[in-house]
Amino acid sequence: MRIAIFNNESAQSQRTTRFLRQEILDAGFEINDFHPDIVITVGGDGTLLSAFHRYSAQLDHVRFIGVHTGHLGFYTDWRDYEIGDLVTALKQDSGESVKYPLLDVEVTYADTTEHGHFLSLNESTLKRLAATLRTDVYIKDNFFESFRGDGLCISTPTGSTAYSKSIGGAVLHPSLEALQLTEIASINNRVFRTLSSPIVIPKTEWITLKPAIADDYVMTVDQFSTNDRPIVQIRYRIADEKIQFARYRHTHFWNRVKGAFISSDTDEK
């Protein structure tokens, strides 16, 4: 089995990575950062997001494992003091995985005939730097509304617990292959009207944004952002690809939600 280790720069993550690397080598596994079968991230959710984008071209065979070294991570199943147990699980690996849907983002630019294409694990947003965002919203190529406000967020089910939740979106179970569109401070008055509610779109449909002409749009894909090109439209749909997590001790989704936002295991009644 070929294993890559991807860590952040914190002192604890680096110490954990050194110990993990030695344990993996002692167990007879190969360290391979270029063509791994397993990617182990050491840090938090941001570290796993970065690793996902680094290995996004290998999603058909790469499985991810998250080790967190600080605050509780939503994507991380292991703690930094459980490295021995993790290596034991690697030795007993049977190839099982849990798969989560991803967001496919296709951008049409005004200055080229080439399209931008991105995959997102959590969400993609569209905003403007110093003005109100104005964009027409289409669902499955049918006009839905003209949006005015600070921005729009389109999230995956797993991303529904991230930025989307903080702006009023619903929490979606990842077995639902769906997109969620959530408004960011929409304008609703006698002139401009929006639904003012999150919208959940099934896999068989897609969302298209056609913003008004402007040169200061900021588009984000997970933790990455760009504002250097004029945008004609953005199309969002459920991606053909999925992220795979190695199923050794993969935490049940609602237990993750409860642990992240409501209580820890020690709070059980």
Automatic annotation (TrEMBL):
InterPro entries: ATP-NAD_kinase_N (IPR017438), ATP-NAD_kinase_PpnK-typ_C (IPR017437), NAD/diacylglycerol_kinase_sf (IPR016064), NADK (IPR002504). Involved in the regulation of the intracellular balance of NAD and NADP, and is a key enzyme in the biosynthesis of NADP. Catalyzes specifically the phosphorylation on 2'-hydroxyl of the adenosine moiety of NAD to yield NADP. It is an enzyme of class 2 (transferase). It comes from Lactobacillus selangorensis. It is found in: Cytoplasm. This is NAD kinase. NAD(+) binds at residues 45-46, 122-123, 148, 150, 161-166, 185. Pfam families: NAD_kinase (PF01513), NAD_kinase_C (PF20143).
